[in-house]
């Protein structure tokens, strides 16, 4: 049974979500502020975090930063802020997904399943595969360790950024459309989530280049998609 940490200060919403997820065979722990959330996360092991951004004591963005210092657990933001800037900030800080209030509990459950399935599949692949390291230009991509090293320096990539890089690096020369990237990395149907891909791709490119590199790691084919080439 997967364990979910639900961080939501609106107790009516928290109870509604908890009741539904328990019926969907999840174990749910409820906390109502950022301070309690950090303490709970440090003391127990969870499979996924549902995080409201507007919570007291320590806001959701800072809670997410704290979690990301130590763990790559899937984080789904639940937010009433339905604008691209807030979503971009949340994704940039390490969120794996977001859902806007008011939301469908069926959709929430589907997103939870997709994110847990992705992490579980990655863990299984890691366990069953031999050590695999991909070298591209001055990058060293360790698939099993989920790490990227550039000139001896480790790059701090989020789960989604690493999965995008892994997909492109494992298929050098192949062009992937935004829809193909989304369906393979997010493991769910693509409904024109173009901004999500754009935000992640921009941040990934910035982290790879650091504004200094002479290499172009990811090539854009306008109107088609993206690819990586060794040379």
Please give a structural write-up.
The protein has a 5-stranded parallel β-sheet, with helices on both faces. 43% of the residues lie in helices and 19% in strands. Helix 2 runs parallel beside helix 3 and helix 4 packs across helix 8. It starts with a strand and ends with a strand. The radius of gyration is 18 Å and the shape is globular. Strand 1, helix 1 and strand 2 form a beta-alpha-beta unit. By secondary structure, it is an alpha/beta fold.
Low-confidence stretches at least 5 residues in length (pLDDT < 50)? none
**How would you state the average pLDDT, rounded?**
87
End-to-end CA span: 46 Å
Query: What structural class do you assign from the helix and strand content?
Result: alpha/beta
- Taken as a percent bin, the fraction of beta residues is 15-25%
Overview in brief:
With 231 residues, the chain is an alpha/beta fold. Helix content is 43%, strand content 19%. It is globular and about 50 Å long.
Fold blueprint:
Layout: E1 3-7, H1 11-23, E2 27-31, H2 34-43, E3 48-52, H3 60-68, E4 75-79, H4 84-92, E5 97-100, H5 105-128, E6 133-136, E7 139-142, E8 147-150, E9 153-155, H6 159-169, H7 178-185, H8 194-209, E10 219-221, E11 225-227
Parallel strand pairs: 1-2, 1-3, 3-4, 4-5
Antiparallel strand pairs: 6-7, 7-8, 8-9, 10-11
Helix pairs in contact: 2-3, 4-8, 6-8
Structural descriptors:
231 residues; alpha/beta; 5-stranded parallel β-sheet
């Amino acid at each position: 049974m997967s364990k979910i940490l639900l961080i939501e200060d609106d107790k009516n919403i928290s109870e509604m979500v908890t009741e539904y997820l328990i019926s969907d065979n999840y174990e749910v722990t409820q906390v109502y502020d950022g301070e309690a959330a950090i303490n709970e996360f440090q003391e127990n092991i969870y499979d996924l975090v549902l995080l409201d951004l507007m919570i007291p004591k320590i806001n959701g963005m800072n809670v997410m930063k704290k979690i990301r210092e130590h763990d790559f657990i899937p984080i789904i933001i639940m937010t009433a802020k339905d604008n691209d800037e807030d979503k971009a900030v949340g994704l940039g800080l390490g969120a794996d997904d977001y859902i806007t209030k008011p939301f469908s509990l069926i959709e929430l459950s589907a997103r939870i399943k997709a994110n847990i399935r992705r992490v579980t599949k990655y863990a299984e692949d890691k366990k069953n595969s031999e050590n695999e390291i991909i070298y591209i230009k001055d990058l060293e991509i360790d698939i099993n360790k989920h790490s990227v090293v550039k000139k001896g320096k480790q790059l701090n990539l989020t789960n989604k950024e690493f999965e995008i890089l892994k997909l492109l690096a494992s298929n050098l020369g192949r062009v992937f459309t935004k829809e193909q990237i989304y369906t393979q990395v997010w493991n769910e149907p693509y409904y024109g989530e173009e901004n999500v891909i754009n935000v992640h791709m921009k941040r990934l490119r910035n982290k790879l280049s650091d504004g200094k590199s002479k290499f172009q790691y990811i090539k854009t084919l306008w109107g088609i998609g993206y690819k990586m080439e060794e040379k």
